[in-house]
Amino acid sequence: MVNKGVGLFVCVIVIVLDIVAGILGVRAEEAQNQEKHLRLWLFECKEPSQEAFRLGCGAILLLIVAHVLANLINGCTPCSQDETHKASLGRQLSLLSLFFTWVIAAVGLGLLVIGTKANHKSNASCGLSHHRFLSMGGILCFVHLLFSTFYYVTATASAH
After folding, report:
1. Bridge-based pairing state of the strands 43-46 and 37-40
2. Residue 75, pLDDT above cutoff 70
3. pLDDT in tens, 1-25
4. Which of 12, 38, 69, 74 is most deeply packed, by most CB within 10 A?
5. Which of 86 and 32 is assigned the larger pLDDT?
6. Residue 156 CA to chain centroid, in angstroms?
7. For 44, which DSSP code?
8. Reduced to 3 states, what is the DSSP secondary structure of residue 160?
9. How far is residue 129's CA from residue 109's CA, in Å, rounded to a whole number?
10. DSSP, res 47
């Protein structure tokens, strides 16, 4: 566990990184929607957006950094199933929020990567629609912020 002041500072940095990543994901979706495209049911032909690609890459990078920092704030605390059942309620909530943080980061990162890859300049083609992947990934950055903050609060509270 790190010093309380340092931990709070890093938590604020994680919050800022997640907010900026979420905004970049939503803006990337807006940039992607400004490009020419023809859509028929689930299939779509579109020109890739270089701006959406750059914004998506930025969102991916910031989400990764935020997730790494959120996990490093409280240190690595692997535990066995027996330790989990005997742990206090605060510790169990901390582990549950850590689990959800990982799931949300994985899904959000996957959505951002798929949406960003669809806007790579060599991908001007027709195929399955990747519509709203960037904005959904951006929204999950905001959800990641909530669970990362909850993880910090519960882990800090259960340590004392």
Report:
1. antiparallel
2. no
3. 557 778 788 889 999 999 999 999 9
4. 74
5. 32
6. 22
7. E
8. coil
9. 18
10. -
